[in-house]
Amino acid sequence: DLFEELSNLFKEEGLEPWTSCEFDFTREGELKVSFDYIDWINSEFGQVGRQNYYKYRKFGILPETEYEINKVKEIEQY
User: Fold this and answer.
1) pTM higher than 0.85 for the full model?
2) Which residues, in sequence order, are bridge partners of residue 36?
3) For the chain, does the N or the C end have fewer beta carbons within 10 angstroms?
4) What residue ranges do the domains of the chain occupy?
5) Measured between alpha carbons, how far is 55 from 72 in angstroms, rounded to an integer?
6) How many angstroms separate the Cα of 31 from the Cα of each of 6, 19, 25, 34, 54?
7) How far apart are the C-alpha atoms of 38 and 78, rounded to whole Å?
8) Tens place of pLDDT for every residue, the chain, 78 residues?
9) Contacts 24+ apart (CB under 8 A), 12-20
10) Kindly report the CA angle at 48 between 43 and 54, in degrees rounded to 5?
11) Alpha-carbon distance 78 to 57, whole Å?
């Protein structure tokens, strides 16, 4: 699998292993690739927390409740 090969290349080069990879295209058609290093599998953050964090990080949208906003801030510090 190509993602596994890419992950192994990072390790071989002594770079921190990433946990997720995101592909975005700009309006000009350029590809932007970003890597995330949060260990979601071993974290205490559930699916809703991850979705809220993604919406905030990607689009600047904070959740509606104070509890969920605090979770997003907690994930930022993780």
Assistant:
1) no
2) 20
3) N
4) 1-37, 45-78
5) 10
6) 17, 20, 5, 10, 19
7) 7
8) 898 999 999 999 999 989 889 999 999 999 999 999 998 888 999 999 999 999 999 999 999 999 999 999 999 998
9) none
10) 80
11) 14
